[in-house]
Structure formats: C-alpha cells, structure tokens
Amino acid sequence: MYLNKLSLVNFKNYKQAEFELSPEVNCFVGMNGAGKTNLLDAVHYLSMCKSYLNPVDRQNINFEEKFFVLQGEWYKEQKKIDIYCAVKAGSKKVFKKNKVEYEKLAQHIGLFPSVMISPYDRNLISEGSELRRKWMDGIISQFDRSFLDNLTKYIKVVDQRNAVLKQMGNFGFFNRESIDVWDDQLVRYGQMVYERRKDFISDFTPVFQKYYALISGSKEEVGFEYKSQLHNADFMELVRQAERNDLRKQYSTVGVHKDDLIFTINGHPIKKFGSQGQQKSYLTALRLAQFEWLKEQLNVVPILMLDDIFDKLDNERVQRLMELVHKHEFGQVLVTDTDKERVEQIFKAIEVPIRLFEIEKNELEEVNHE
C-alpha cells in the first residue's frame, strides 16, 4: 500500500498544493514554519479521519477560508483507491472512498494505516493519562472494529450519565431508575474495553521491548504498567460505591475513562527516572512497535512518517533507525527536515533513493526524482 498523489485545498497554511509521491522514500525540506509537518498531518488525516496535531477540525482550515479539502490517490493490492475528505465550518465532516460516502467514519479506520514519529510524541510521556489512552485505543481501533464500537458507545454513555448526574445535582433529587439504565451500559461496554486493552498491552509489550533494544543498544528493562480501577474490583460494585461521590461532583468518577498507561524503565516511571536519551529511544521504539503491530494485524504495510527526527535524535540512534530503512523493514516513508544536505547524505550512505521536495513560502517544488 502507498499514497501516490496528495492534494490539499485550504488545509492549514496551504491554499492549494498537489504532488505525486514515490512508493519508497520521500523527503520534504524547508525552514521551520514552512509547512513540512502539515503535509504529514494531511496524510494522517486521510488515514485516521483526524489531525495528528489538532483535534479541532475548524482550526485546521486556512484562517482566511471556511473549508478545507484533502484528496489522496492510494494504491492497495495494485488497485487505485481515491479518498476524499471535506471539512466545512459548522457542517458534518465528509469522507468518501471512490466517490461513495462512508455512513460512519469508523468504517475507514484501519484501511490506510500510518504511523508518525514526531517531536510531539514527548507529550505521551509528559502529559496526562487521556493522551496515552487515546494512543492505545487508536491502535486497537484500527484492527478491532468491535472494540471501536464498544469504546464509542462507552464514551456516549459516560456523557449521558454525567448529564443525568448534573441534572440531579441541580434539582436536588435522586432518581434510581434514571441512573440505573446508564450504569448497566457503563459496565457492559466498559468491561469489554478494559479486557481488550489488557490483552493488547500483554501482547504488544514484547514487540516494543524488541525495538527499544534495537534503537537504544542498551539492556534497560522497559515496559508498561496498565493502571485501572477494574483490576481488583467488580465494575458494578465500584459504580455503586462511587454513587454518592458522583452525585456530589456531578460526573462519573470510576470507569475505564480513568485508566492510565505508565511508561516504565527498570520498573520506574520513565517520566521521572528516564534520561532524555532514554525517553527518545522509548518513544521511537513505541512508534516502531506500533508500525509492526499494525502491519501484522492488518496485513498491510503502514506509511511511516518521520517528522524532524534527524535534528532531535543523536547520530547513533539515527544510524540504527536508518539500518531498519536500509533493510526494507518499511514500505513508503515520508521524512521532513530543515537540512537538505543532511537528508541527502543520510540516505546516500545507506544507498536508498529518495524523492526530494523543497518547501518555501507555502510552495512545494520537487528537486529530484530518483
């Protein structure tokens, strides 16, 4: 699978751009702020129906316009597939495959997988639990439609239950029947989400550990600690015990929406005990494991996007990553960097041909076509 052609209209800083890609390595070079990352984000949008960087669709529209359109010409199993996405302020997001609109965006998830390694990944370590849950759920959702369905329903139930709790709090009354109907669904969908997350972490951990050893060249013990209120308690019992507290706070205080994934090194949180180099290796390994996992589960080679990593990783880690590229572990690769000569030298050293684009003042120009 690869993306052959990409078209952008009013997406972020691009008024209009269209270009063809190599099925192998594509490099985009330009100054900081030129819009290199936005091109990768457009690919991510066509892959996952959302931005990698900004979840608010309206904010991805060029500030002078009221809509944006992304179009991608993909080849999968030697068949051409056209994907169309349109977002208009105040309107429903539209996604089409070969001119036929999806009934649900969930139908598209997992068909054209992609993985991005980016400086923004550090937020997975430094920020709160919601980001790590989204990362985990985003992977599972691409190959397990029932999980995505259960998760979607669970989120809606939490929202509805919170609305009922708020109404009860505002009016100073408690109605058992009104809350029971949501409690039953909260437990039913939440339990299935919990079990699937637990299984995923168990199976994913060895893959991640393999890539950490490859990238870091060290023998630290890395892993994950899945924290959930459901580990040692019955979910419904937890809900009943939290009832008074939920009424007082007017939102649901227990459930899988409170889960967290602690990233560990030698048994301790890497956020507190990992060096900067260890954290970089951890995050790179995390994304490479994600790549392999999706590849195996979907039987499709995802697009790998490397955003400004040559400037953020030391030479040793870059070399180990490039060795994987040289061994053709990946399919189509998209790379951004500020230094044209550095990119050319890196790929020349491993004898991998590239298609090189230069970006300046929101304009894209192909420099070579190897």
Automatic annotation (TrEMBL):
Residues bound to ATP: G30, M31, N32, G33, A34, G35, K36, T37
One Pfam family cited in the UniProt record for this chain: SMC_N
Cellular compartment(s): Cytoplasm
Domain RecF/RecN/SMC N-terminal intervals: 2-352
A GO cellular component entry from the record: cytoplasm
Record keywords, A-Z: ATP-binding, Cytoplasm, DNA damage, DNA repair, DNA replication, DNA-binding, Nucleotide-binding, SOS response
UniProt xrefs under InterPro entries: DNA-binding_RecF (IPR001238), DNA-binding_RecF_CS (IPR018078), P-loop_NTPase (IPR027417), RecF/RecN/SMC_N (IPR003395), RecF_2 (IPR042174)
GO molecular function: ATP binding; single-stranded DNA binding
Gene Ontology BP terms: DNA replication; DNA synthesis involved in DNA repair; double-strand break repair; SOS response
Function statement: The RecF protein is involved in DNA metabolism; it is required for DNA replication and normal SOS inducibility. RecF binds preferentially to single-stranded, linear DNA. It also seems to bind ATP.
NCBIfam families per record: recf (TIGR00611)
Family to which the UniProt record says this protein belongs: Belongs to the RecF family.
Protein name: DNA replication and repair protein RecF
Natural source organism: Lishizhenia tianjinensis
Gene designation: recF
